[in-house]
Amino acid sequence: MQNNDKKKAYLFLLLIGIIALLSDFTHEGARSIYGPYLGLIGVSAFLISLTAGLGEFIGQALRIVTGFIADKTKKYWFMMILGYSINLLVIPLLMFVDATIWQVAIILILLERVGKGIRAPAKSALVSFTTSHIGTGKAFALQEFMDQIGAFLGPLFVFVVLNLNQGSELNGYHLAFGLLGIFAIMTLVIIVYAKSKYPHPDHMEIQTKSRGFKGNKTLIFYLIAVSFIAIGFIDYPILAFHLSNTNAINVIYVPLLYSMAMGVDALSALFFGYTYDKKGVKILHLSILSSILFVPIFFLLDGTLGIIIGMIFWGISMGAMESILKAVIASLVSKDKRATAYGIFYTVFGGAWFLGSTMIGLLYDLNILYVIIFSTAMEVLAMIALAFYIYQFKKETLNARTS
């Protein structure tokens, strides 16, 4: 019986992984060219960074509501279908936007993040229901690996489309957005199939002792550490804008570079996820160190090699954030409040991301050196805050054993 439950959990996780792969193929493929595309239709560096940060904030802030709704109603699949529909179907609409209505492009990009905000807590909760059979770090690492395979292939697909396009540069972007709509439809079809096969995924998790938010100091320390990580991390649209703005590389290679980073992200997620089950959250210090290293390497080293090395460190950091950060929540809060916990986590993370992106956009227009100093300082504070979290976690664990 136990082996059957484990097999069921793996098969369910595989379906979620396929959904993640196809959806990331779509929205990460689009995301890889947001920066150059917005720049091409006349959007400034500040507005590009602001759009990236505001999109994350809106998408993340929504999750405190959508996570609560998912927990209260147990309508995890409804939230998935609604969220993915908005998240993915706005992307092909970008093929109709040009410089005369550039504001519409910003609205659609923001709506894409809104869709992610609707479905993300439900999706993370679905993955967490398999952790009692698979392992917390391992489950999130495997899901993130599939996720990032899509994030690797999507930008690669966009790179090929842009290279094969013989029309104007803007026409190439429009064609890429339109073709990505095919994969959006495929994603929604598989979600409907998964819903019919696993109508009550929360029944998979083995019941554990309930743990909510009251008196959960460990969760508070963790959210503080996560906030500093998000504030100091530089999102790809501003990196892509920097590459095209400085002519560091041919703009046609921007999605290819993002594809490479997503491949590193996928492998990094596996490493950090599996290591988390053995070593705990302290392995996240290694990820933060990568975040500290990538900024000066990317912005200060001349030539293609510096850009590639910088993006490798960026991909390592992303892989850890996408696997470990979510896995920790599954360990801190019981399943009946899990989606709500993810909503709170994402809201805090998104608010910090928005604050950081806004500051980075302003500092970039002043001097790149200010961006480097700001980002590095925030990540150092993240390491200090994480040390406090680890201390509190060990203290609570010891108290639980002795009581």
Brief synopsis:
This protein has 403 residues and is an all-alpha fold. The chain is built from 16 helices and no strands.
Low-pLDDT parts are: none
Given the C-alpha coordinates, what overall shape results?
globular
CATH topology category name: Growth Hormone, Chain: A
The helix content, as a percent range, equals over 70%
Which keywords apply here?
403 residues, mainly alpha, Growth Hormone, Chain: A, 16 helices
Structure description:
The protein is built from 16 helices and no strands. It is globular, with a radius of gyration of 20 Å. The longest helix has 35 residues, at 368-402. It has helices at residues 2-31, 34-40, 45-61, 63-73, 76-89, 102-128, 131-134, 136-164, 169-197, 217-232, 236-246, 254-279, 284-300, 304-332, 338-366, 368-402. Helix 3 (45-61) runs antiparallel to helix 11.
Task: Summarize the helices and strands and which ones pair or pack.
Blueprint: H1 2-31, H2 34-40, H3 45-61, H4 63-73, H5 76-89, H6 102-128, H7 131-134, H8 136-164, H9 169-197, H10 217-232, H11 236-246, H12 254-279, H13 284-300, H14 304-332, H15 338-366, H16 368-402
Helix pairs in contact: 1-8, 1-9, 2-11, 3-6, 3-11, 3-15, 4-6, 4-15, 5-6, 5-9, 6-15, 8-9, 8-12, 8-14, 10-15, 10-16, 12-14, 13-14, 13-16, 15-16
